[in-house]
């Protein structure tokens, strides 16, 4: 039987999510990859245990995580039952709806029909009465925003979620969504954008300033650029890595030019006494820009490495300048640009 580490709250900082009462760990764990039926259940269990033992109280899911879609929520539901029974109140669990989940006109985007049905399905798969945060996973250009936000409001009022958030909405859409939610009396507490050293769309968009102005927290997803910002690819593409699997990380991104830039970033990280992954996470968290960095992991050792980032979150001006001169803002890293930048 699993007994969480007594020391689990000793080193992880918990940062206030915007102006809400919710505090989130500086590092959170997402279950997009490595929690589908192609991964042994024991490994999924070990990853969740290692996360919680290291102070990661926030687990991020979505209806479509797998493969197949839904299987990550089913696996996590099993882990909640067998490992975390009795610890529900120490956990922040999120889910989302927005991407394709089932066939036909009601299985994706932002209609009331889809969001409420999908939330019910997610709760069932995880065996939960409620999720802590429920997100609109992407902006829907065809459904009135009033309808999508109205569905989020209903999801909270009906007890299915405690808080709501939006993901990959640009500043303009965020302001519109937040105004509607405020009118409805269900504030938006969190925004989930992609953000890392190689993908700075939030800086070009001004989203971070928008969120600060609105008093909304943020959870930066793919802070390691799916693993590019770690030591993993410094000497080529290792067997079994995400880039080798032909899934969401296109190996063409790891050109000779990119790898030499990653090697140069690694030198900066070493001079700071950090691994490249730790420096990339610290960079996203610097100056409270993001409330929390939302990592993925395929090994327990990766989680242990990543949580070490919190030991040094500050940067000198020289370090930031050296990083800026080395890390390219590579547009192809942002797979989610259609939702955020092209609406
Ligand atoms: N809202 C959205 O639209 C959206 C979209 C995408 C993701 N997300 C969320 O963000 C979460 C994280 O996404 P992500 O998995 O792409 O994040 P990521 O942290 O950028 O990449 C995770 C991958 O990096 C590698 N890695 C992690 N730590 C490492 C370390 N210390 N040393 C070496 N390699 C390391 C592993 O790759 P290997 O597997 O190759 O070992 C791991 O699977 C998702 O699970 C999901 O919750 C949200």
Query: Which structural category do the helix and sheet elements fall into?
Result: alpha/beta
- Order of the strands making up the biggest sheet: 3-4-5-6-7-8-9-10
Strand content of the residues, in percent?
Answer: 5-15%
* Whole-number mean pLDDT: 96
Report the count of strand segments. Answer: 10
Element layout with pairings:
Blueprint: E1 14-16, E2 23-25, E3 27-30, H1 41-53, E4 58-60, H2 71-82, E5 92-97, H3 112-126, E6 131-136, H4 145-157, E7 161-167, H5 171-184, E8 188-192, H6 201-205, H7 207-214, E9 217-221, H8 256-271, H9 276-285, E10 292-295, H10 300-307, H11 317-326, H12 337-340
Parallel strand pairs: 3-4, 3-10, 4-5, 5-6, 6-7, 7-8, 8-9, 9-10
Antiparallel strand pairs: 1-2
Bound molecules: NADP nicotinamide-adenine-dinucleotide phosphate (NAP).
How would you describe what is shown here?
The protein is 37% helix and 13% strand. The protein is α/β, with parallel strands linked by helices and 343 residues long. The longest helix has 16 residues. Strand 7, helix 5 and strand 8 form a beta-alpha-beta unit. It has a domain of 231 residues: Alpha-Beta Barrel (TIM Barrel), CATH 3.20.20. Helix 4 packs across helix 5. The site of NADP nicotinamide-adenine-dinucleotide phosphate (NAP) has 31 residues, from strand 10 and helix 10.
